[in-house]
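Follow-up to my post from last week.
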Amino acid sequence: MPSVAAATIQMTPYEVLKELSLFAGTAETTVDAFAKASQFQTVPKGTVLFLQDDESEWFYVLTAGWVKLFRETVDGNEAVIDMVTRGHIIGDTAVLEDGVHSFGAATVEETTFLRVPSSLLKATIKENHEIALAMLTSMSKLRTRQTREIESLTLQNASQRIGCFMLRLCQLSAVEPIHLTLPYDKSLIAARLGMKSETFSRALNKLRSETNITIKGANVEIPSIDILSHYVCSACSNEFPCSDLT
Amino acid sequence: MPSVAAATIQMTPYEVLKELSLFAGTAETTVDAFAKASQFQTVPKGTVLFLQDDESEWFYVLTAGWVKLFRETVDGNEAVIDMVTRGHIIGDTAVLEDGVHSFGAATVEETTFLRVPSSLLKATIKENHEIALAMLTSMSKLRTRQTREIESLTLQNASQRIGCFMLRLCQLSAVEPIHLTLPYDKSLIAARLGMKSETFSRALNKLRSETNITIKGANVEIPSIDILSHYVCSACSNEFPCSDLT
DNA sequence: CGACGTATTGACTCGGCTCAAAACCTGTGG
DNA sequence: CCACAGGTTTTGAGCCGAGTCAATACGTCG
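User reply:
Got it. Predicted complex:
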C-alpha cells in the first residue's frame, strides 16, 4: 500500500529540501547545513509529532503520508485545522511565535518525513533574506488558504463543502468523466470540513443526487465538472479553477 | 462622536508609521520615505477601499474608525473575514499575492487612515531585511488569529462566540464588575461572528441568562469574568486570558 | 412629532447533531 | 476459502440550534 514512499525512498535530505519553495534561490551551502542537521524518520499511524503549546524543537518536511493538524478544547472536542501531506512543512511557524506550537500534529497513517531542528531555521531567518522572503510568501499563501476556509465554513453547507473538497482534488488538465480517489478516511474528511461523519455521509448522498457524481468506496467519478462547480461555487467568492496553493 | 480622531488628528504621517511594529527597528530614512509618499484621508461610512481581485495600488494604515474585511459570493452573500481599526494595516498582504487583493474592504463608519503606495512596500521588502522580518511576524500573528477563528466557528455555538468576543474586549487589568462598550453595530458583530442578527439577538439573551451579564444598548456589564470565561472557554482550546494580538 | 435605521420577538422550517443500530470492509487465523 | 473481529461507514429516529420571513419595538435625528 505505501507505494507513495517508493518515489522518495531513494532521495537524500538535500534533495528533499532543495525542492521546497522555502529554499528556492538559497545558496547550496545553506541548504546543505539544513540537510546535515536533519534526519529521515518513518512513524506509524497515530504518532503525535507535537501538541499545542509544546516547545518547538523540530519542524517537519513531509515526504509521504498524511498528517492532521488540530486543536483540542478543554471539554474534549477537536477542531481539525488542516490535513497535509508530502511537500508540506509543518511546525515551522512556531519559530515566529515564541517557539511554541499553536496547534497539534498527528499522523493518520504511516508517514515519512525529514525532521529538522527549529533552532537552525530560527537563526537562519534572522540572517538570510532569501529564506525570510520565501517564508513570507508561503505564510501569505497559508493565510489565503485559511481565509477561504473561514468563508467556506460560514457560507457553504455540508454538501457544498464536500463538493468543494472534491473540486480541489481535480487536476485542471483532466478530461471528463473525471475519476479520483479520496485521499484519506471519510471520517477525517468530515472532520477536516467541520462536520460529523454521519452528516458527511448524508450530505454526500445529497451531493450525489444533485450533481450526478458516483461514489464507490473511496472512488469518485465526476461526469461533469460544470454541474458540480455550479452547485458548489455559487455559494463561494471564487469561481471554479480556484487554484489551491501550497 | 468621532472623539477617537482627536488623539490622532495632530499626528504626522511619520509619527503614525513610526509606531507600527512593521517599522520597529527600521532606519529613520526608510520610514521617512514611506511618510513622504503617504497621505492622510478621511472618508465617510460605507466607503469601499478596495474589492476582492482588485489590483493593489495602496495599503492603508488606520488611525480612526472601523473597517470591514469581507468576501462576496457569486450568489450575493457576504462573509465578514475581520473587523479592524486604529493601529491596523490593511491591504499590505496583496504585495505578496501577485498584487491582487484576496478580500474587499469597506468602512462601516467615518474612518481616517494613511494611504501608502503598495509599490514602495513591495520594493522595500525585497531589500530591507528588518521590514521583511517584521512583516513575517505580523503575518504569523494574523495566521494564529485566523486559526482561532476557524476553531471558533467549528466548535463554539452562537452564545459562546458572542461571549468570546466580549472577553477579547476586556482589559486584563480591569476590576469587576467590568463595564465595556460594543465597538460597532450589533448586526456587524453578528456578521463578524458568522451568524444572522436575529440569531445574535437570541443568543445574547441566552448568554445573559447563563452568565449574569447585563446589556443596555451597546453597554455591557460583566459581574464575573470567571463565570463568563467558564461558559465560553470550555468549548475552546485556549483558556481565558487568550491574548488577542495585533 | 414623524421617519428612518437598528434591534428584538414570534412562528416556522430546515440543516446538522446525537444516540443507537445495522451494513460494510479489511485483515487475520483457522 | 471461510468465519470472525475490528474498524469504518451508512441508515434511522428524534432533537435542537440557527436561518427565514414578517411584524413589532426601540432610538436617534430631523
